[in-house]
Design a protein that fits this description.
183 residues; alpha/beta; two-stranded antiparallel sheet; 40% helix
Length: 183
């Protein structure tokens, strides 16, 4: 479960608890610059800097999937290898900015090259995008949508787009994203 911009993992506390009570394994990380995730190591490991959601730069948002979500994936692989979770049934739920992360993580997962010793990627089977934005801080949407809307991927993954009717911009963005998948 991936929270929205300027939110934190507590936004999903009730949903996470409900899903866990139904037997689902749930992970709700604080995204970079949010909640308890406000320190990042400097290049080369020489110290760290404090980051806050309001001051995140484009490079910070772009780093969320290849670094932060990759850390989450490695954790899930460890749990999968210990037979504590089934990574082959991975579902991503993202709200607002979290929907951008979920979309980009799924696209990265489906474009991972196979390893000589086994499967890598293609674990995401469901994506739920709650009030997704068509653009966020200059993070391109086209590449991820192209991957996820590809028939070879689209036939293997379920995607749900949810939006409230009271926000015209959110409705417009959600419709734009939905049309890409609908094609």
């Amino acid at each position: 479960l991936l929270h929205d911009y300027k939110s934190n993992r507590n936004a999903f506390a009730d949903l996470a608890q409900s899903l866990q009570q139904r037997g689902n394994a749930v992970i709700v990380p604080d995204l970079r610059g949010h909640g308890d995730s406000t320190r990042v190591l400097l290049p080369g490991g020489f110290g760290e800097r404090t980051i806050e959601a309001a001051n995140l730069r484009r490079v910070d948002f772009a780093a969320m999937v290849p670094f932060d979500m990759e850390s989450v994936r490695r954790f899930l692989v460890t749990k999968n290898d210990a037979q504590e979770v089934n990574l082959n049934k991975l579902s991503l739920v993202g709200a607002g900015r979290g929907a951008t992360g979920a979309r980009d993580w799924a696209a990265r997962d489906w474009t991972a090259p196979p390893l000589a010793v086994g499967k890598q990627g293609q674990d995401v089977k469901v994506i739920v995008l709650v009030s997704p934005t068509a653009s966020f801080k200059g993070i391109p949407i086209q590449d991820a949508l192209r991957v996820l809307a590809d028939r070879r991927v689209g036939d293997l993954i379920s995607i749900m787009v949810i939006v409230g009717r009271d926000d015209p911009k959110a409705m417009r963005d959600a419709r734009q994203i939905h049309k890409r998948f609908e094609r």
